[in-house]
Amino acid sequence: MPEILKVGLDQRSYPIWIGEGILERIDEALDSVHFSRRIGIVCNPTVAELYLCRVQEALEKSGYSCSLIEIPDGEQFKTLETLELIYNALIRQGFDRGCGLLALGGGVTGDITGFAAATFMRGIDYVQVPTTLLAQVDSSVGGKTAVNLPLGKNLVGAFYQPRLVHIDVSTLRTLPQREFAAGLAEVAKYGIIEDADFFSWLESNSDQLVSLESEALIHAVKTSCQIKAAVVEGDERESGRRAILNYGHTFGHAVEALCGYGKVKHGEAVAIGMVVAAAISRRLGFCSQVDEQRIETLLRGLSLPVTPPDFTAECYIDAMTRDKKVVDGVHKYILNLGIGDCRIHAVDNLETLLDTVFHV
After folding, report:
1. Distance in angstroms (rounded) separating the CA atoms of residues 174 and 177
2. Is 242 among the residues known to form the active site?
3. Strands 330-336, 342-347: pairing kind
4. Where are the domains of the chain?
5. Given the residues 194, 238, 256, 296, the one annotated as active site
6. CB–CB of 247/334 below 8 Å?
7. pLDDT per position in the chain (360 positions), as tens?
8. pTM higher than 0.90
């Protein structure tokens, strides 16, 4: 039986189904939330070859009508052009406001499908069926939807909650090792910012995770989703505490922008960003050298990069200045307090903050 969590947001509340071998139970999950019977399944060719038939057969045997909307594969295609491709497919296939979308794939597919759902005919329902670890533990939960612009990541988007998140951890066994490792960065993040016991569990069970053992996978995904759901319930639109989920992301987004979207995976960039954040935290007295070393050691053990690509401090500062979290010239930088806690650190001078890392 799947484990079912709930993201409690009043009328926008929704369940998260988590289990192994539950992909074919997507019809039961959709029935439980009374989802539209007409569905557009958005996925890329790689995911379609692996999982489309299984999902489509499970839905159609229960009376759902499904249409494929295929999008290109890769972060570099998380663009307004791909969004328009989805809109045009919906219009040509006669979709209306009573229809729904199903995002089948990783974070790119989930983000762009959610934004399409938020804006097509001023809003239609959608569900997330994430097939990558990063999407399962992070991007599929919480309702952040967006596309990238050439000058910055996720600069055009909306907060728009799904009706359901359906997670089958068996899909993780078809991921390339690098893609799986990238997702582990977000898992580690939850331990660093919110749960010291979970961080210790990750240190003790990293081998089981890397070996894709079912019990370890389900525990890691469930705990990550529980932490994120609790944060989102308290601050749905990131007006306050939800910003802690951006730990490692400010510098990580700069890495992605400077290297070119798709060259460095999102989780890899976040891992680098977390190491930078831990280094800053130690130098400001928020964590110890032992804490900093534990973070770096865990990330290395999960096959993640920890060294920033070779760009100047000025390049990183310029990229971070364009980040959407800068408000009135003040940047919210998330810094860890030891392991298991964190703080939102308001910064109006990025040069001073990065001096401890780059010696500007």
Report:
1. 9
2. yes
3. antiparallel
4. 3-171, 177-196+237-358
5. 238
6. yes
7. 899 999 999 999 999 999 999 999 999 999 999 999 999 999 999 999 999 999 999 999 999 999 999 999 988 999 999 999 999 999 999 999 999 999 999 999 999 999 999 999 999 999 999 999 999 999 999 999 999 998 888 899 999 999 999 999 999 999 999 999 999 999 999 999 999 999 999 999 999 999 999 999 999 999 999 999 999 999 999 888 999 999 999 999 999 989 987 889 999 999 999 999 999 999 889 999 999 999 999 999 999 999 999 998 889 988 888 776 677 777 888 999 999 999 999 877 778 778 767 764
8. yes
CATH number assigned to the domain with residue range 3-171, chosen from the 4 options 3.40.50.12780, 3.40.50.300, 3.40.50.1970, 3.40.190.10: 3.40.50.1970
- Can 253 be counted among the known catalytic residues? yes
Q: Examine the residue annotation and report whether 34 is marked as an active-site residue of this protein.
A: no
236 token code pair: 């749905």
**Active-site residue, 154 included:** no
Q: Which CATH architecture has domain 177-196+237-358?
A: Up-down Bundle (1.20)
Alpha helices (H) in 195-312, listed in sequence order = 196-210, 214-234, 249-259, 266-283, 289-301
265 is catalytic: no
Known catalytic residue at 122: yes
**Would you call 359 a catalytic residue per the annotation?**
no
Asked if domains 3-171 and 177-196+237-358 share a fold, the reply is no
Active site residue 246: yes
- Residue 253 tokens read as 């987004």
For residues 267 and 186, the answer to whether their CB atoms sit within 8 Å is: yes
The residue annotated as part of the active site, out of 166, 253, 282, 332, is 253
From the list 153, 163, 166, 242, the catalytic residue is: 242
